[in-house]
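By convention, the token line describes the chain's fold. To illustrate:
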Amino acid sequence: MAKKSNKNKPTSTAPQKFGGPMDPSLLERFVKIMSENDVSSLDVSDGSQRVSLKRGPQQVMGTQNAPMSYAPAPVPASPVPAAALNGGAKSQADDDESALKPIKSPMVGTFYSAPSPDAKPFVQVGSTVNEETDVCVIEAMKVFNNIKAEARGTIAKVCVQNGDTVEFGTVLFLVKP
């Protein structure tokens, strides 16, 4: 078995023309995986090599070599059909919930209400939020993504429980404007 020797031998993970420790095609694959799975940050290490990639809002992305993808558009102020939330049980509750704005999951993953198991939840019923307030974390492929409220108001209902698996578009919270 040959040991790693960087003298006189270029390796496939460190091509001489790039001049860096990471293969550009590997980085492009990471960016593609992030884009296809709506992952906002990725941290990979292999021995002494380490790469940390972060995606910001789509308006600021657009470098020449990075593939473009578009984040889900903000949900318009249209009401959520209450029948979808509680099976169409109560008409008074239907009227109350139709005026609320949903905060939906932008990805598939595991919902966590707090940044760590021993921490208090980001928000709870009665918490005031704005567009930049972190409301939860969704774990996708071992990457923890902070989810912003993208709405202004007061949390009226928490629709999922800690540790639940959520799909794209799952209503996480209802906000009273």
Observations:
- The helical segments are 24-36, 82-86, 91-98.
